[in-house]
Amino acid sequence: MQQIDGGETSKERDTTTEHPADPEVCMTFDDFVAARLDPLLRYATVLCYDPHLAKDIVQEVLLRAQQQWPRISATVDSPAAYVKRMVTNEFLSLRRRASTREVGTSLRVLDELGSPTADQTGQYDEREAMMARLATLPRRQRAALVLRYYEGYDDAAIATELECRPGTVRSLISRGLATLRIRSHSPVDDRPLTLAKEMG
Asked: What residues are paired with 3 via a beta bridge?
């Protein structure tokens, strides 16, 4: 095989140019954190309904990602999606002691994690009530609902994130919404859940 530039083969050179053109692939870890920390904190906070626990999860995940960054940046198509999946897995694997800790934090804290937005005070009560009920669901149901209504994922993408079948995703979402309807004593649609995204 033809050698070029100090022993690198033409086949090896071609392979490097086939990597997807995701700008995060070429980022340093510090640049990645600067770009993605805020969205990761928001996502983790919606999952946990506890900004302190969310920060613990994101910090733990980023420490592991930093150790693996040469591999992640070189081989993963979308580092942002990969690290977010690490956050999801960390949330799902929390020990019962951590998952049952009492939380009563206002969702206003969630908005303080990012850039200021227009004041929409009238919608906080509705979102607060829905997110408080969401926090009482089993973690996989909660994650499925957050991925659907906060992240906008379809069944296939959620199945990839949760490492299950699309049919399982539909079941998780159906059971989660049914529980929310019972606990709210009223119909539940996606509007209160998407408020977290619209106001974030």
From this structure: 9
Residue 5 in any domain: the answer is no
Q: What is the DSSP letter of 18?
A: T
Instruction: Give per-residue pLDDT as tens, 97-136.
Output: 444 443 333 334 434 444 334 445 556 667 777 788 888 9
Phi, psi angles (nearest 5°) of residue 95: -65, 155
- Block residue for tokens 């509705």: 126
pLDDT exceeds cutoff 80 at 60: yes
- By residue range, what is the domain housing residue 66? 22-114
| 17-26, 27-36, 143-152: segment of lowest average pLDDT | 17-26
Q: Which residues pair with 4 in a beta bridge?
A: 8
pTM: 0.70
Structure tokens that stand for 108 in this block: 């206003």
CATH number of the domain at 128, please: 1.10.10.10
Q: How far apart are CA 17 and CA 36, in angstroms?
A: 25
Question: What angle do the packed helices 51-75 and 79-92 form, to 10 degrees?
Answer: 140
On the question of pLDDT at 68 being above 90, the answer is: yes
Clarify whether residues 110 and 29 are in a common domain: yes
E-state strands within the chain: 3-4, 8-9
109 and 184 part of one domain: no
